[in-house]
Protein: Metal ABC transporter ATP-binding protein
Organism: Niallia oryzisoli
Amino acid sequence: MSKELIIQISGLSYRYEKEYVLEDINLSVQKGSFLGIVGPNGSGKSTLLKLILGLLKTQQGEIKLFNEEISRFKEWERIGFVSQKANSFNTGFPATVYEVVKSGLTKKIGLFHHFKKEDQQTILEAVDSVGLLPFLKRNIGELSGGQQQRVFIARSLVSKPELLILDEPTVGVDAQNVRSFYDMLGDLNKRLGITLMLVTHDIGTITDKVTHVACLNKHLHFHGNTHEFEEQNKNGLAAFYGYDLHLLTHEHAHGHEHGGR
Ligand code: ADP
């Protein structure tokens, strides 16, 4: 029996100006999967996420979310998104972990909602899921980049999303904490059953966490499960794709990024 599809993209092309930045993308995401999207800078990863999140309007091709054509889709609380910018949080901001996570509830129930007892439980569960219960009353500005990123993930979890989309979530995470960060994401996927989709530079080190990989560079060069990805990779996919997968470690990606900006 085939699994429920959370995202179905067919024949998707997009351009800001004359040149296409995405061309004929076909991609499906099954419920319960954990998809890692890789691609060099400027390969269209953010554009693809923005189209899926309805932040850009489709021009050619189709996107379906939970079997509904995106222009008719209304149940946005089923989708959580944590942007890359979340972890460049102003460290002087006077809010506790609890308060920041609580603010995520307004997405689901509106600004003038009366706080209920279950809400308190929901907040504590979300904070616990990202491993930050001991930091509940701490000011977010005192936390490390990786911990702040966990706070923003918890904030999106309070609306109990079925799909969570993350744009390079480990950019602000210290190299030694990247592994435990991915353990936490793997736990959200496995234990809570949340479908995950993330843009990452760490794919070479997390093939045990993701279930599927998509390699994007304007076109979708590869999409398949982790096993197929590793097989393809042995056959020189990375070389074809323009870089050596073994260099795609966290340290490399980040050294690269900082050097490039
Ligand atoms: P990635 O996330 O993989 O780095 P992007 O989706 O941000 O790639 O960008 C893909 C291409 O689209 C790049 O060439 C980029 O310069 C271009 N681009 C992105 N945003 C805009 C925009 N608002 N206007 C014009 N071009 C854009």
Remarks:
- The first strand starts at residue 5 and ends at 15.
- The pocket of adenosine-5'-diphosphate is lined by residues 16-17, 21, 39, 41-47 (CB under 6 Å).
